[in-house]
Structures are given as structure tokens and as C-alpha cells.
Amino acid sequence: MKSKIRILVFPCGSEIGLEVHRALAFSSHIKLFGASSLADHGKFIFKNYIEDLPFFDDPEFISKLSEIVVENQIDAIYPTMDSVISMLTVNSDKLGCKVICSPQETAEICLSKLKTYSILESVIRTPRVYKSVDEVDVYPVFMKPDVGYGSRGAKLVHTREEVLHHLNEHPNSIILENLPGDEYTVDCFTDRNGNLRFIGSRNRNRISNGISVNTTRVSSTQEFEDIGNLINRELTFRGAWFFQVKRNSLGKLTLLEVASRLGGSSGIHRNLGVNFALLSIFDMFDQDVQILPNNFEIEMDRALENKFKIDVDFNKVYIDLDDCLIIDSKVNTTLIKFIFQLQNQGKQSILLTKHAGDLSETLKKYRIHNLFDQIIHIQSTDEKSDFIDPKGAIFIDDSHVERRQMRKAHHIPVFAPDSLESLIIS
Predict the structure, then answer these.
(1) Is 227 in a helix, a strand, or coil?
(2) Are residues 184 and 231 in the same domain?
(3) How many helices (H) and strands (E) would you count in the chain?
(4) Collapsing DSSP states into helix, strand and coil, what is residue 377?
(5) pLDDT by residue (tens digit) across 5-39?
(6) CA angle 85, 91, 92 (to 5 degrees)
């Protein structure tokens, strides 16, 4: 295996794509590329970003993707949507690289809930499927697309009229028995020899748009492991995959779906030491892997994250100390991150302060005495604008008065600590 495996993630701005980035961004073995059909959040996350790829069902998609593979010397594509996985496995011989996923037959089965139930209903509990509205004898029922993901087109339906209305709006929907109990996702990893190497179950405590945004580990796992082993026996997986189950009215675990990819909130297990994306890549390149999960309680909560691109060109930053770098006797770690980003970019960080005490002792106390390219210590009566070289400079200070005076004197961009996030890159 060569020193850097070049991985193209598509679509890279999906929740799965962003989790793949989080999983691989710090690996010394991987060089990441991201691609999407529309400009998305991946543009703010992936350093090597490619947009305007045709949609996966476009006739030109495979040929254009193959061009990208050649131009960027891609070793493998990491697909992050079920439909894309199916498309790529069908056309794998045209891509010129590996595809990080399970075999084509498995991808096709997992794409359809009806196919999945048909294969697995003889070995595990699956929900009752009503062939028509006339078969429904107990309401409510749950309706969802046979082929779909997230919560698109999924609805709890209480009457015959509602079923007919939903079928009119979503004709691909299937009618299922309602499962009223707790819902779980079980993250799995199967190696190239078919061995199920890891099973990790988690609660889906809070769900938004079909994605678990609050999840915790399930401590009692045997019933989930039994189901996982039975699924792994019936279907051929390679790499990361997951299944979702819910308890029926009798409290019995019943299958919702199986997916031949990693789950969007599988990051909870990554933070326990099980990196599904990296394991899947190593396994696809025929590398033996070891899995050593930590055993502690963990809760994961997800929310929207801000990323920015700004058109400010600068090569040096003047930074205040009191109530900016040091706030309430604690180091502002966000600003520390930015200072090291400057170092990585070859830009200067300059401390410009009116600190009233012994500056050297204060910097040593907080272990930041060797952090700056230059330190400028001025009097409280001095104007900071008199001590800077404004060419290519920006200014960070908690004081509105100081920022206003600096803008007035030099017309350079000024930032408060709360706007640091616009300067931090991934």
C-alpha cells in the first residue's frame, strides 16, 4: 500500500460525507478529495473540492467521474448515498479505481426495503407488510418509500383515507405495521473474509430528518449482536454497514432497514476508537486491521455547524491579550487554534497589548510566552493603531473602542473574539 491513498468522497457535503471527512481528515495514510453535483457544505470542509459533477442518474455521470479519477489519480471512491453506491457498483469496471462498499448484490438488496425483508424475513423478525390498503386491519400504520433514505416520504398514518392520500403523493410507498417502541441503530464492520468484526448498538434518542442527532451506547447488546450475526450470514458485506431496529407492540426487536454504508451518527463509535471509514479503506486494500474499542459511556449530540469563506487577504494578525486571548483567567482555545493555523500558513501572529501587570510572567503563567512572532507591549494611554504595520494586517480585540479606532486609522478588517469562527479553516 502506497504512502497516501487518494480517496474521493461523493457526495461529500451529505451528512455521511461529512462524517467520512471527520473520520479521515487526520489520517497520515489518506489524501482526501470531495465532489458534489451541487455546491454544498463540502465546499467549506474539503480542501480538495470538486463541484458541478452530473447527478448520479445522469447519462454522463460515470464518464465524468472517470475523468476526475484519472485527473486526480484517485485510488478509491467513497460513496455516501445508497443510490450512489448502487450506481457505482453496477459501473465499477468503468471507473478505473476501487469503490469502498459492499458487493453489488448486497447494495441492490439494501436499496429496497421490500427486497431486504424478503431475504431476511425467514431468519429475523421483519415488520408486517400490507399489500394494499384493503389488507390493513389495525391502525395506525407506518408508510415509507420502498427506495429512499432519511425521513423523506415517511409518515405515521391513522386512517384509510390518509393511506390513500399518502399513496397518491408518494406512490412508491409501502404500508407497514406500526412499531411503537424504542428505535436503535446498530453499526457494524465486516472484513473481506466475511467476518463480522464489530457490532455497536446505540439509541436513537432524538431524530431530525431521519438522522439521529442525539445518540448513546446501549449497554446490553446480546439481542442486537444476534440479529447482526444473522444478517451478516445472509448478506455479503464488506466494510462498514448498519441496520436499524425498533421494538414492536410486544417489545420485540423488529427490522426497519439495512444499509451497506456507515451511519451518519456512527461517529459515536469513532470516538470510542472504531473508525469505520478508515477500517473500510484498509480492508478494501487488503490490509489486516485490528479493532480496539474503548469501554466508557458516551453521548453524542449533533447540531448545525458554521463554516465560512471570506475574501480577506492578510499575512499578519495583531492580537490583544486581556479579555481576548485570556478570558476570565482562562486561555481562549479558539484563538490558540487560529494562531497555530497562522503558523501552518506561514503568517505572522503579533501580540499587541496594554497589559497592566508583568507581561512576561503572565505569558509564562498561561504557557503562551513562545507563541508569537512578535510582542508589542504599550502603555494604557497609547493608541494601538500607532504601533502596527497596516499592510496585509488584520486586528483582533475584544474592545469595541479599540476596533473602531483601528478601523478609523487604517481601514483594515477588525474582529471581535466572537467572530473568530469566520477565520478558522477546517
Answers:
(1) helix
(2) yes
(3) 13, 22
(4) strand
(5) 999 999 999 999 999 999 999 999 999 999 999 99
(6) 80
